Amino acid sequence: MDKQSTTQRDSIDERAGRSEDLESTRGPTPGLVLLFTAGQATCLVMPLPATGLELGRGLLPDGLPADPKMSRRHACVRFDGERFAIEDHGSQNGTFVDGQRVAGKLSSATASVLRTGDSVFLLSGDTRPYRRWGVVCRGATVMGPALQETMGQATRAAQHGRTLHITGESGSGKEGIARTFHAGSSSRSGPFVAINCATITAGLAERLLFGARRGTYSGAVNDSEGLIQSADSGTLFLDEIAELDPAVQAKLLRVLETREVLPLGALRPRPVDLQLCSASHRNLRAEVSSGRFREDLYFRLSRPAVEVPPLRKRLEEIPFHIDRALRGVDASLSAHSSLIEACLLRHWPGNVRELLAEARGAAQSALGQSSNKVDAQHLSAEAGQAIERAFDASPACVVAMHSPIGRAGNRTPPERAQIEAALAQAQGNISAAARLLGLHRTQLKRLLDKHGLSGGRTDPSLDGDDE
Q1: Is the peptide bond prior to 145 cis by the omega test (within 30 degrees of 0)?
Q2: Domain range 314-378, CATH class
Q3: CATH assignment of 2-133?
Q4: Measured CA angle at 162 (ends 161, 167), to 5 deg
Q5: Are 206 and 249 spatial neighbours (Cβ–Cβ below 8 Å)?
Q6: What is the DSSP letter of 309?
Q7: Where are the domains positioned within the chain?
Q8: Strand 75-79 vs strand 84-88: parallel, antiparallel, or unpaired?
Q9: How confident is the model at residue 10 (pLDDT cuts 50, 70, 90)?
Q10: CATH for the stretch 145-307
Q11: Residue 18: its pLDDT value, please?
């Protein structure tokens, strides 16, 4: 698939007669990016001439089979610098823009996905990144232009330093960036040790990370090597580093500063030579401001940093991920264009992790219906949709939501359980929790002090209410 995609992209470049040097001196190049046709994932650029681009059976780029679901003259696409204009020529199977059938003509400045017959395109105001980078499949990794650029940043960071911080949403591929950092470093021949800090309880973190001497705790009958020591001469990847206990953060900082690790119960530290790659879906600077992350550790590892773009900004990768997920379930399965279109139009808050899981679920659904073609109807309604945070429906919380104290304080203050439920619902944000409880944030802060609860964090954007 990789070789085929590269060959097809080169064919388009030859036909267009453009070089990268020429493109760099030009402005944006509008066009279509063909992502899927005849059951095949691809990434081919079709530039838009000033007169428009005609789509139809036999009019796809050289090297691709004709799309039998297209009419001979199916549709025409134009771009005026701001808006795409799509005209259907009375095609038998219809022309669809962002999932809606085009009746005659449509003009839009926000349209992104075009489907004609069994082919799916992206409408792009600037196709240069797709022409230059394409989509590369390497092992289990699928990389479009945005992800390839991020990978390049990680490689450059590995060549000039020993730390890298990675930000990005959950499931977006942060570990892949960490592995790229490791592979591009002088320690590539050493071990790569990945740890999800969110899965380590506070009581075990020190023991697991730093190791322990025999007899340090009940059951310690032998010396145990910590995960940091196991990464000696290699790279340690601490995913979700913001979840580490502050005491462990302090010891980690000392390891970075001294290149030594002191196991629990040991009298002398042991030298370690490692690179540290950290990652978090949280804003570490905000975590420092709220007191949940050490400022000194933040300044030690926050730069250089790279951000992994979410899947919704890497749409060109989606057909390749789907193809691999379906074939992983059953080699006889293939995707229908409606499945590709539906996935391109969804938000995917869980990013690649969610897409793969839902694609496998759709594959199972198709097999259950004795179908080897997976289409949009096999995808669950919730797949790729934003998760709405439902309120706690417990009686205590419901009473709290509808029983504000009010300015005069003449109503019963919420109980501890109600406050805890509101804080959990607001993900620790004091201002949001106060609104849920019908309080001002200062009133809630007093109640937090009264009950000895953690202070949470404030959000100035929510602080428009009066005392």
Answers
A1: no
A2: mainly alpha
A3: 2.60.200.20
A4: 95
A5: no
A6: P
A7: 2-133, 145-307, 314-378, 395-462
A8: antiparallel
A9: very low
A10: 3.40.50.300
A11: 42
